[in-house]
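Dig into my protein:

:::
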Amino acid sequence: AWVARVAAAASVAPGDREALDTVVSFFAIAQVLTSFAATFGLLWIEAQLGHAALGRAARIDALTGLSNRRGCLDRFEEEVARARRGGEGFAFAILDIDRFKAVNDAHGHLAGDDVLRHVATLLESGKRREDGLGRIGGEEFLSLIHISEGHRLAVTVSAGVSRFPSDGEDWDSLFGAADRRLYEAKGAGRNRVVGATAAG
């Protein structure tokens, strides 16, 4: 812009003060407009980045870094669509940390938060890339597809598992079936998984 301004000023006839003022004014206005456009562009980029960050934050549990309930619902809808396209089913498992209230009562909520983060890390490390995992509230986690075994935990979990589409084809049906089985697992002594029986 400065080179163009100098070139334009040099092309003005010597002594033509009015033409020189016009060139200087034109480039001054152009510079102001360019600065305004650049500033507006940067603000728009910042707004878009902020909007994307808010969208991610709305679907991520701040404590564990896993999907939150809303994120799980979104992932569930994706899995339902995939399952319907491919004619396949998937597992819907609710996992609950056993006696979690006792951990909070005995050691405080900061220790409870550490347990939640640790369990989330173990669950994340045990899942396949294509599986879904999230914290849906309190000490409850949701897994779509499969949870690997073989990790030794200081706490145990109980899980109830339902299956798409035999136990239902929407969130409420699958959640209800998995939740009932979770409480069966708790009632049967905890530290176990209860899934659908062959009869349903």
In short: Helices lie at 2-10, 17-57, 69-86, 100-107, 109-126, 171-187.
